[in-house]
Specification:
The chain is an alpha/beta fold. It contains 17 helices and 34 strands. Strand 6 and strand 7 form a beta hairpin. The protein is globular and about 80 Å long.
């Protein structure tokens, strides 16, 4: 294939080469039809594969990053990679934009839920498994965001000021493992700067570290709109600017070559990386595929399709249950269905388990209610639901479960008046629809166009609803033919990538059970406007005494299940949280329900640590994170004991934000004067808590089981350590045996303990297993600044073996000789 790639590069004009260094559209790289070079297609991940549709083509919604991190199970994550590869194939996607492997510095970061852990080893091992699973399916992973992209505050411009040791020992470890162990095929640079230079034009990071030291031979692409220059970016090693049309590469790069600012050989190297990636995903030299957009040659697998297969769902549910962490259990869980006649399901997140916001969101196949899943596990029980309180920051998007078929009908017109028959009609399963460029390939390029979105809406509550319409472009809302909201002269808002209008609101009376026809018409404000979109918001009438009704329902029930947490309005790409508190009256609601019923299970549906001041009083507390669309059924399985809560915390839960590694220093977070200083150095997460003796609410690696484990002595072997463990409980149980390292007399400042190995085992009642954990020379290393390399100092070390970073069962002393 090398010869073919060389021949293709030799056959290209400079302009053709340059065209391959920039996206053609939002999700496609340019094609060269005369040479048979197709358009590479990428898609957002990693909590599912969206494809190129932004109006709601359905995909399997998978557990978020912290849920995956909580599994501590590389083998399972590898199988999840198989699922993602199959999903990508169904969406004709060649490159999956994931995994996200930035280390969690602060739980307040808006994209914490996308990352795996605060620990570099745990993150690295899961990332390697994920990448291997996806790439063996012929789909490339694009690991992101390189590097130190761990906050949303000033994310496009902030400079992470980080020393060499901290950078290599903490924040680059997962990327290095992805290259050296998983041979990842693509990498995405971060928006931010590192030590004053944008990551997309970092010769040290891309050239010296990634290319030279690690030997990366894959493609380096920018984050979307994350390129800031032409010559500095390509000379640093950036291969591809995304998305298109290009601003800095593409034609601008060709002009820079002609001006003598960039050598053409540099462009040849960029193109070689892209063609190599095309070869790896199996589309280079293949025939053009029918069904792709007319402005591209083809993407190697055909038109997008929905799959919704049983095998993928089974893996998704397994990840959801293995990632759920049992934080508290006062002999309440699991619950025998025969002992329960009434269940009260309560809370703002109980309607459907939420997900985080931003580019990781996908439109699920189903929005499963927790109450419905529990009703199936408790067939003899009456299940009642009360919301109790609300946490909506803004008027929420219309609940699609109230539409016939849980979908809108979308009609596309080749005129601005929605006149005549539509050119094409399709379904949309998302309440927020957006189109970038031509809304549909069947429309006439350069002509006028418009869209009608309609559906049959049946309200579930009588009374005055609050409706709202925001749009990119002009729009109108009609109900049963009546004009209800006129947004034909929209005022500029912040939504739809800054092209949207303000939300125009009105009140409208509905009667529960009586259907109405809803129609939204949207058209460009002016010719050539590149973004079109619409979102219908609908807030249910306030339920009188909602809080009191919830508490009363809990008091009358045999079992109360309260589902609280966050959602995409509070935790999302684009902004950080202000504190750890649950929004609204959730804490007061939980406390009141616990007081009314001591058989209360509290389920926390959030993607990052939150404050849990009532945890010690609850009958049980489960952290399910954002578990995806199989989460409600996975949760119900755990409640009745059909599944084990197999998760262990991948991140520390502090009592206060100030207790954490970034403390209360504005320089350390969120930053001052355009810089965020990594003052904590290598003392990230549990390293900080254990080294300084600060007590967390729940420590790293913690999680309870339905099993009960007894252990024998620890033994050191030529390959690592071994410990005999027995499950003495009457139920199957999960154990994650963890090994931490303590340097007794280190030559540099080192944390009190560092995770160097772990193994997850599941044991039946009375089953005994000798758990072995392999260690090697790299387990004892640290980054030596003077030598600019990894180093292991000879001397005494102590191994700490246990069930969490603080629950240490045994220690072993070990002497390490000179390398």
């Amino acid at each position: 294939m090398t010869t073919q790639i060389d021949d293709l590069i030799a056959a290209m004009t400079l302009d053709e080469k340059a065209s391959l260094t920039a996206g053609a559209t939002l999700w496609y790289v340019a094609s060269i039809p005369r040479l048979g070079i197709p358009a590479l297609k990428v898609s957002d991940g990693p909590s599912g594969v969206r494809g190129d549709s932004m109006i709601g083509r359905r995909s399997l919604s998978l557990p978020c990053g912290t849920a995956i991190g909580s599994t501590w199970n590389p083998e399972l994550v590898s199988r999840l990679g198989d699922v993602l590869a199959a999903e990508a194939a169904a969406k004709s996607v060649n490159v999956l934009l994931g995994p996200t492997v930035c280390i969690i510095r602060t739980p307040l970061a808006g994209r914490t839920f996308e990352s795996y852990s605060e620990d570099p080893l745990l993150t690295a091992l899961l990332a390697v498994a994920y990448i291997q699973g996806v790439q063996r399916g012929g789909v490339a992973c694009c690991i992101k965001h390189f590097a130190c992209n761990d906050q949303e505050y000033e994310r496009m411009t902030i400079s992470a000021q980080v020393d060499e040791r901290t950078l290599h020992e903490i924040h680059l470890v997962p990327f290095e493992a992805a290259v050296s162990e998983a041979s990842v095929w693509a990498l995405m640079t971060a928006y931010n700067k590192v030590n004053g230079t944008y990551c997309g034009e970092q010769p040290d990071l891309i050239g010296r570290v990634l290319r030279d030291r690690w030997g990366f031979d894959g493609l380096v692409m920018s984050d979307w709109f994350g390129t800031h220059s032409t010559a500095p970016a390509v000379q640093a090693g950036l291969d591809l600017e995304m998305p298109g049309p290009s601003a800095w590469l593409g034609p601008s790069l060709a002009a820079a070559v002609r001006a003598g600012e960039v050598e053409e050989a540099v462009v040849d190297g960029q193109v070689r990386h892209l063609l190599t990636l095309m070869d790896r995903v199996g589309i280079l030299g293949g025939a053009a595929v029918q069904g792709a957009s007319p402005d591209v040659v083809g993407v190697g697998r055909g038109a997008e399709r929905e799959t919704n297969d049983t095998w993928s769902r089974q893996v998704a549910r397994e990840v959801a249950t293995e990632g759920t962490v049992l934080l508290v259990n006062r002999q309440l869980l699991p619950v025998d269905p025969a002992t329960v006649r009434t269940i009260a399901v309560i809370g703002p997140n109980a309607g459907a388990l939420a997900m985080g916001g931003g580019s990781s969101e996908v439109t699920p196949y189903r929005r499963r209610r927790v109450a419905d899943a529990l009703a199936e596990r408790f067939p003899a029980a009456e299940v009642v639901y009360e919301e109790g309180c609300r946490i909506t920051k803004h008027l929420p998007t219309l609940d699609l479960r109230l539409l016939d078929g849980e979908a809108y009908q979308v009609e596309y017109f080749d005129n601005a008046e929605r006149a005549g028959d539509p050119v094409i009609t399709e379904q949309a399963y998302n309440g927020r629809m957006a189109w970038v460029g031509l809304p549909h390939s069947s429309l006439t390029e350069g002509g006028s166009h418009s869209v009608r979105v309609s559906g049959r809406f049946t309200p579930d509550v009588s009374g005055t609803w609050r409706l709202g319409l925001e749009s990119a472009g002009a729009a109108e809302l009609r109900i049963d033919g009546e004009l209800v909201i006129d947004n034909s002269r929209p005022e500029r808002g912040t939504g739809f990538y800054g092209a949207g209008s303000t939300l125009v609101e009105t009140d409208y009376p509905f009667e529960a059970g009586t259907a109405s026809e809803i129609s939204i018409e949207v058209w460009p404000r002016k010719s050539g406007w590149p973004i079109l979109g619409a979102r219908l918001a609908a807030g249910r009438p306030e339920v009188a005494n909602s809080f009191e009704r919830a508490v009363a329902a809990a008091a009358a029930a045999d079992l109360a299940v309260v589902v609280v947490g966050l959602n995409s309005e509070w935790e999302s790409e684009g902004f950080d949280r202000h504190d750890l508190r649950l929004p609204g009256e959730q804490d007061r609601l939980v406390e009141a329900v616990i007081a009314a019923n001591d058989r209360t299970v509290v389920v926390v549906n959030a993607g990052s640590p939150v404050d849990l001041p009532w945890a010690e009083q609850a009958g049980a507390v489960l952290m399910c994170w954002y578990p995806g669309e199989e989460g409600a059924d996975g949760l119900a399985d755990i409640v009745v004991g059909a599944a084990e809560p197999g998760g262990r915390l991948p991140v520390t839960f502090p009592y206060t934000v100030g207790d954490g590694a970034t403390g209360e220093s504005a320089r350390a977070y969120p930053g001052t004067d355009g810089e965020v200083v990594y003052e904590e150095g290598v003392m990230v997460g549990y390293r900080h808590f254990n080294t300084l003796g600060i007590e967390p609410r729940f420590c790293f690696g913690y999680g309870l089981s339905y099993g009960d484990f007894h252990h024998g002595d620890v033994h050191t072997t030529s390959r690592g350590i071994a410990m005999e463990v027995t499950n003495v409980a009457a139920r199957r149980g999960t154990l994650v045996l963890q090994v931490y390292l303590r340097a007794v007399e280190p030559e540099v400042v080192r944390p009190d303990r560092e995770l160097i190995g772990f193994r997850k085992v599941v044991l039946d009642p009375e089953q005994t297993e000798t758990v072995e954990i392999e260690l090697d020379a790299s387990s004892f290393r640290y980054w030596h600044v003077d030598g600019h390399a990894w180093r292991t100092d000879p001397g005494q070390y102590q191994l700490l073996i246990g069930a969490s970073s603080q629950d240490i069962w045994a220690t072993a002393d070990i002497n390490v000789g000179v390398d």
